[in-house]
Here is the input.
Amino acid sequence: MLRRQRRGRVRTGAVGGGKYHALLGSAQDGRVAAVARRDLAAAAAAVLTRDGHLGATYELGGTPFTLTELAATFSEVLGTHIAHRDVPVADYTATLTGAGLPPEMAAAVADADAGLARGELFTDSDDLVRLLGRPATTPREAIRNAATAGESR
Here is the structure.
C-alpha cells in the first residue's frame, strides 16, 4: 500500500492592504514532507512493475520544510519577497472566509493547516527515495518547475 501525506495546497494571499504577498497559515513551525506528483507517479510505477511489494506499506514523504522555509524558497525562485505569516486558526478561518470560501470549507482548510503544527504532514521515512532510486524532488525544484511551466503557457 502506498500512503502519502495528506494533500496540501499552498495558499497565498495579499495582507496588509495588498502591500505585500504572504503565505498565510496556522502551521507554526510544523514541518511538511510534501511530495511532487511526478515522484508519486514514479513510486507507484515502481511498486506496480517490480516484484517484492506484495503486502508492503510505504510511507511517502519528500524533503521536510516549514512554511517559513517555503516562503523563503518562493522568494528566491520567483525573485519577489513572499513573507510567511502565521496566524491563529480562528484568524486564518476568518481570512479565508473573507476571501470567499464558504465558512465550513474555510474552517476545514485552517484546521488542515494547523495539522502541520500537530505533525500530521511529516514523515522521516526514506521509503520514497528507496522506491525512486534517486533523491526526491526538492521544494526548490518543484517551485522552479512550476514557475517555468507557468511561463511557457
Q: What stands out?
A: The helical segments are 37-49, 67-78, 89-98, 103-117, 127-132, 139-151.
